[in-house]
Amino acid sequence: MSSTPGRRRIFAVAVIVAGVAVLAASASTLFARPAVPTASAPSLSALDRAVDAAQAKLRRVPNDPDAWARLGIAYVEQARVRADPNYYPKAQGALEKSLALRPERNAEALIGLGALANARHDFTAARQWGEKARAVAPDTAEVYGVLADAYTQLGDAEAATDAVQRMLDLKPGVASFTRAAYDLELRGQVDEARAALERARADGCGAFCDYQLGELAFDTGDLDGAARHYEDGLRADPRDVSLLRGRAKVAAARGQTDDALAGYRDVVSRAPLPEHLHDYALLLTAAGRPEEAAAQFTVLDAQRALAEAAGATDDLDGSVIAADRGDVTTALRLAEAEWGRRHQVLVADAMAWALHLNGRDAEALTFADRAGALGWRNAGLAFHRGMILHSLGRQAEAATALEQALSINPHFSVADAATARQTLETIRAGK
């Protein structure tokens, strides 16, 4: 929907060869951007039951460190599922209580604190907690989930893949297969990523993997395949907002704007997550409804303020949103702040785009090169590179990059796909 490359969260998939999961040497979005479930996404009712069970245990045994750790981890998941960062301080309090009660060899609390740090986008802290947990419980798969997520977001691709491989070795299930897929996708191994997601789905991933398969299909230009996966998931869970968002995204790509707008309106009413609000605002803008788009951006600003108040920082998303709103100075300032914390693919791309919008194309190209270094076949990255090259007067290279963007996914953005086509026509006409 936006000029941002598909920033799915760290949900990935491994290569399946003769029934064995293998990762090629050394991997998220949301995207990437965002809290990451430790397995297939639990339902809200399941989370509520986990919270109730932990609280009941603590009423009986107030100083049970395991119950405090389980409560903290459940709060982290509730923050994600409810799109409510107010659960983060609750999670922190419960996990710190667990650690105070059992300061030594408390792997569950350390894992929980790592997951919380990842959810808050404090990936350096998440890596530190994960490494502490590994020292205590080196054969626990969940340790490597925390580490894989942190390493990926910090841009340490080799360490991320090693962590994913270790997780696969210890527990080859949904959580490890889904993390492996994003790693593979980042390296351009789309077929292997798809195979691993299919394996995760066969292992009981259900609607969660239907969504991921739909995203993978959409991002590679297969609208029919994306629609099929989204609808498969919705048959199993008609209320799943991610799948409803996927359906709306397909409608927008097919030019069914009224259906897409109705779909996004429903999605943001159910789950006003930043990515949902952002997509909806961009679609409203493209549909010529700027006042309604501005209202969504206002809600998005409020969401970001709530997240920051709860200890979550996401200058990457902030930079992308500012760029889409035309605030190029803020876009660059936030991108630079995020780059100061981590050198991940999407942060490199945000730096490239913000520098381009500020007229600093020579610098922008160095970041575009870094964004594409792993081999990710992503239309948004290719579009940004093409526009930067176009501004530098390197028209043959620009045309190649823009052709690649449209070849990967001709529907990658309601606004930018049209810009890519128009710029390509201009280049071909020699203007």
TrEMBL record:
TPR repeats lie at residues 141-174, 207-240, 379-412. SUPFAM superfamilies: TPR-like. Signal peptide: none annotated. Keywords: TPR repeat. It holds the Pfam family TPR_16. It comes from the Bacteria. The keyword Transit peptide does not apply. This is Tetratricopeptide repeat protein.
